[in-house]
Amino acid sequence: MEQNQVSPSALERRIDIAVTLADIEKEVDARLKRIARTVKMPGFRPGKVPMKVVAQTHGGQARGEAVGAAVEKAFGEKVREQNLRIAGYPRIEPKEGAAEGTLEFTATFEVYPEITVGDLGEQKIERPALTVGDAEVDKTLDVLRKQRTTFSAADRAAAEGDRVVIDFTGRKDGEVFEGGQAQDFPFVIGAGAMLKDFETAVTGLKAGESKTFDMTFPADYHAQHLAGQTVQFEIVVKTVEAPVLPEIDADFARSLGVADGDVAKLREEVKGNLEREVKRRIQAKVKEQVMDALVAVTPIEVPKALVQAESQQLAENARRDLEMRGLKTKDIPVDPSWFAEQAERRVKLGLIMAELVKANELHAKPEQVRALVEDMAQSYEDPTELVRWYYAQPERLAQAEAVVIEDNVVAWVSSKAQAADKEVAFDELMGNAA
To answer: What whole-number distance in Å separates Cα of residue 141 and Cα of residue 45?
Structure first.
């Protein structure tokens, strides 16, 4: 006896399953005989324990396993008969009023949705376009120089970019407030470590000079006892140091890994790294638009079981991330429901992309995977070592294959949508725009 019913969820199914008690008893008997061959009991040699005793001690376990195996087998047969694709695990519940000599169950489960990717012809995709030239290399070298800034004592008033060392005391209503006092405190004016009004007060002072001034904390200041409050600061400037940027010379090139100090070679390496980074960022922006387009044209209901599993995985990832930051996750509840929306989108895209890959032969080809791995390896000192590392473990190579498949999907969708190049500024693409 079986029956399929569609619940309020279009993906939920129910199947009635019947197993005969006679078959169950045969399986129980067979399991007990197997157990009897090896079971050990005080007073009996191995394999010589009477079946009656074996049944008394292991009968419940054998019966439970036999029923479970019979139900699993019957369920599998029904699923294959109806050509159903099961998502998640079924919920098996016993039925009342079973026919004599049988056990009856109801299996409730979800199936994968039928997916037909919608028309992408009206979807617009903007492909950022940027050619890396001398100007971009110069900007990057300037950033690298600033990262290696040193400071030298300056006999002048403090200015933007200078590093100062100060003593300060802050009072609220005449009393020193928590965190309002420090000695030999260093900071760079304009780096954003201190509030703008505080930096302004220090600017223009020389080493040995002092100043008293009032300052009001922002209303959204992180320390609630100071948010929106006006306090008084006394500061003493102890040193003023001017920034010194390194010259782009042989020593600078060697500090960045160019062994012979060749500045031209340094520029070539910076340009190559920039081109790879620009390519990666362009691909990421196009991919985001492609995924939005796929979701927009392919509205589907997704199995709750898959969304719950994905939410659990995202929650676990968040816990691991917190632990890597030194936080104790047992003190920080991470609820999978927080990630439900993100999980649903990921499941949708996974199903849609799987259908596209199957229908359009977008699987990763070995030569594509090799090209990707070799391209990633170019930014390493020994590229061949990274290539060997990827190919040493199938799990690592699978990660590269997944990236290639995504790239194939992005290329296929871009060819069907209204894709057009759009010039983009270097700072905007790299996230440096003000």
So the answer is: 81
The answer to whether residue 210 is domain-embedded is yes
Residues 179 and 315 in one domain: no
Predicted confidence at residue 35, as pLDDT, reads 83
The whole-angstrom distance between residue 209's C-alpha and the CA centroid of its chain comes to: 50
105-133 pLDDT, tens digit each: 999 999 999 999 999 999 999 999 999 99
The whole-angstrom distance between residue 84's C-alpha and the CA centroid of its chain comes to: 32
Is residue 202 within 8 A of residue 235, CB to CB? The reply is yes
- Give the 3-state secondary structure of residue 171: strand
SS3 content of the chain, % helix, strand, coil (to 5): 50, 20, 30
**DSSP secondary structure letter of residue 164:** E
Structure tokens at 38: 């090896």
Q: Residues 117, 357: contact at Cβ < 8 Å?
A: no
Range of the domain at 101: 12-111
Answer yes or no: do 371 and 348 share one domain.
Answer: yes
Q: How far apart are the first and last CA of the chain?
A: 69
- Residues 45, 87: one domain? yes
Instruction: Return the number of other C-beta atoms located less than 10 Å from residue 16's C-beta.
Output: 16
Q: What's the count of helices (H) and strands (E) in the chain, helices before strands?
A: 12, 10
pTM above 0.85, yes or no: no
- Could you please report the per-residue DSSP string of 344-374? HHHHHHHHHHHHHHHHHT-PPPHHHHHHHHH
Q: Do 381 and 285 lie in a common domain? A: yes
Half-sphere exposure of 60 (CA within 13 A, CB side): 2
How far apart CA 223 and CA 172 sit, in angstroms, is 14
Three-state helix/strand/coil letters over 24-70 = HHHHHHHHHHHHHHHCCCCCCCCCCCCHHHHHHHHHHHHHHHHHHHH
Residues 162 and 129 in one domain: no
50 exposure class (CB count in 10 Å sphere: 0-12, 13-18, 19+): exposed
Residues 382 and 146 sit within 8 Å (Cβ to Cβ): no
Last residue of a domain, one of 244, 272, 296: 244
Q: Is the pLDDT score of 1 beyond 70?
A: no
